[in-house]
Amino acid sequence: MVQPDQSVTPRILRHHAAADVDVERRHDERSASLNKPGRGGVGGGRRKVDLELRLTSSCQPRPTVRSFSVAPASFKDLIADPIGMTRFKVSDCEYNPPDEDSIHPAYVFHMNAIDLEKFVQLYLRNGNWNGTQIVPSHWIEQSLTAYSRLPDGNGLGYFWEAAMGGKLYGVDVGEAAFAFSGGPGHYMVGIPAQNKTVVHALRYNVPGKATLPTERFAQLLELISQL
């Protein structure tokens, strides 16, 4: 555990990430069973897209609502607009204070599959977009490096899941492949060995909406990887 007087950094927090992600997933499963959205993610369902932002917020001396209020606008100016996320809107973001599900505050980003695919492309291109370095390459490398291992066999970086032994979700996708997943049924994957991106997103606010379990997504990923 981090001591009260110890400086908190992503390098310290990442060692606790696997347990945190397991809690996030169990919350997603409970939310799905109640026909409720999770507190974050990819696509409409939102759960995990906000996790890296939430982790970073915990590293600030005193994160405040005001400091979070600039996050969506900064993302739009620094990332969304430069890489052509034409559907991203600051008004589609919302601040979530700490609650019973997480001690960390979060700014939830509602994003559709088209914009998410561009975000995966940005990481696939090592942070470079048409000759402009949008995200530092060293941050991309650190984010996608596996520092621990999840129960499903995927490695875990800065809340990105990393291929271990060339496999993601048990599917042979080659070295350096990476993914983000969030319940119920939202996934985005980058496959450098094949120069492919895969995004699967569901609308989060449809009561009774069918989900896509990891086992089913793995079957879809295997078919796509063979194309």
Kindly describe this structure:
By secondary structure, the protein is α+β, with helices and mostly antiparallel strands. It has a single domain, classed as Beta-lactamase, CATH 3.40.710. It is 33% helix and 17% strand. The protein has 8 helices and 12 strands. It has helices spanning 10-13, 17-33, 51-57, 65-69, 71-80, 113-124, 137-144, 214-225; strands at 93-96, 106-109, 128-129, 132-133, 148-149, 155-156, 161-162, 167-168, 171-172, 178-182, 186-191, 196-200. It starts with 9 loop residues before the first helix and ends with a helix.
- The counted number of beta strands is 12
CATH class placement: Alpha Beta
Query: How widely separated are the two ends?
Result: 45 Å
Radius of gyration: 17 Å
* CATH architecture classification name: 3-Layer(aba) Sandwich
Oligomeric state of shown chains:
single chain
Question: DSSP strand (E) fraction?
Answer: 15-25%
The description of the largest β-sheet is:
6 strands, antiparallel
**Helix share bin:** 25-40%
- How many helices? 8
Point out poorly predicted stretches.
Answer: 1-57
Shape by Cα distribution = globular
Average pLDDT metric: 75
